[in-house]
Amino acid sequence: MAAQSPGGRPCAPRSRRRLARAAPARWGSGPRSSPGPAAPSPQRGRGPGPRRPVRSSLTCRFNSFRRTNVILQHLGMSKHTDAAGEVLLERRGCAGVITLNRPKFLNALNLNMIRHIYPQLKNWEQDPETFLIIIKGAGGKAFCAGGDIRVISEGGKANQKIAQDFFREEYMLNNAIDSCRKPYVALIHGITMGGGVGLSVHGQFRVATEKSLFAMPETAIGLFPDVGGGYFLPRLQGKLGYFLALTGFRLKGRDVYAAGIATHFVDSEKLDMLEEDLLALKSPSKENIADVLDAYHTKSKIDQDKSFILEEHMDKINSWFSANTVEQIIENLQQDGSSFALEQLKVINKMSPTSLKITVRQLMEGSSKTLQEVLTMEYRLSQACVGGHDFHEGVRAVLIDKDQSPKWKPADLKEVTDEDLNNYFKPLGSNDLKF
Predict the structure, then answer these.
(1) Which sequence ranges form a coiled-coil region, renumbered to this chain (predicted)?
(2) Class (C level, CATH) for 52-423
(3) Rounded Cα–Cα distance for residues 67 and 6 (Å)
(4) Among the options 36, 137, 147, 190, which is catalytic?
């Protein structure tokens, strides 16, 4: 069936360049190619013309760090409640539609929601009358700002099973999204962090808007970039993934597409129309779904000529973060001495030393593992973090007392030994994650 244009008319035949997909459907399968006008990737230069200044965004780095903490605090308000109404699972035409429906809590993901989504996803995957799965967030502010971390911390300190069950079942859902045989479209409009990244980034199609906000800020609360972060982050261009993982740097709008997190960019005012056009497809295939997404992407004009916010820094980022240890990365930033390098150094120095070391090893090992192998590794890490000090201290400092002054133990990178690190990665025997 011919793909429909944003106006609902059949799309005219397009050139070979426009038929190219916005990004590979699976991570690591090849470099991004654009289906039309789009923000340049960090590895590409721009033609002559005015350059959008990036100074204003970068000088707000610490305000952004504080705003990320505000988002994390919002997650801490959430309560462990019944899932009725917290996630809406609908059959619309030949599509299954998942709506994360906790807008008061930025659609934070809890265990009950996971337990509703997972079996329905499996049912739709097996259903011969379901050809497409769409996931989105309610409320307009967030797709999903992450997991219910305060509940996890409280349960972990009380030796409750919630910390085991949440991570185990969340990672099982991440894997199910990756292996789903039906086209999976995530509309990542608004805040998309942590657990929200896991619900989207492993799907075939990820649609960002000018209001999208992506970050993996886990090292600020004594965790690590999980939900498969060890798989997709090292597969981003150059050392961008290491930079995002260690600093929690926030990407907004078209930058989420330029970085390779999203496969398409669509103006937010067209998002409802895009969804309707996808739902109107009869027996949709991956190819004609991609055609519809490409058509909207190509017609998007917002920030069309905007350069990637990190473009001018990518060569240095690739150099600084190519080091094999956190200590060497820090030394690289110190030796550079530029304002941008010192900004990143100041941010990294706020993070949990243990989390920083875990993250570098996680990404290095994950770069050569399958997603299932990475999720197994991350489950081990999650249980070690919940059983340790820094995660609970990070939750206290950000969510409970809100003093923003966590007392990390150890407090210095030098005190985090190889033996300590090995214990975090240690297999769990019969308690290991199994698929």
Answers:
(1) none
(2) alpha beta
(3) 34
(4) 147
Which has the closest alpha carbon to 435: 196, 179, 146, 181?
Answer: 179
pLDDT digits (tens, 9 = 90+) for 16-43: 222 233 334 456 543 344 444 443 333 3
Catalytic, out of 86, 170, 218, 311? 218
Over residues 285-297, mean pLDDT: 97
Domain ranges (residues) in the chain: 52-423
DSSP element (H, E) containing 186 = strand 184-188
The reply to whether 238 belongs to the active site is no
| Number of other CB atoms surrounding residue 109 within 10 Å | 29
Bridge pairing between strands 251-252 and 213-215 = antiparallel
390 phi, psi to nearest 5 deg: -65, -35
Q: Look up residue 353 and give its two tokens.
A: 């030393």
148, 170, 178, 226: the active-site residue = 226
Its pTM stands at: 0.84
Q: Are 366 and 230 in contact (CB under 8 A)?
A: yes
The rounded radius of gyration (Å) of the Cα atoms in the chain is: 21
Name the catalytic one among 195, 196, 198, 241: 195
* Sign of the four-CA dihedral 307, 308, 310, 314: negative
255 classed as catalytic: no
% of the chain exceeding 90 in pLDDT: 78
- Is 147 in the active site? yes
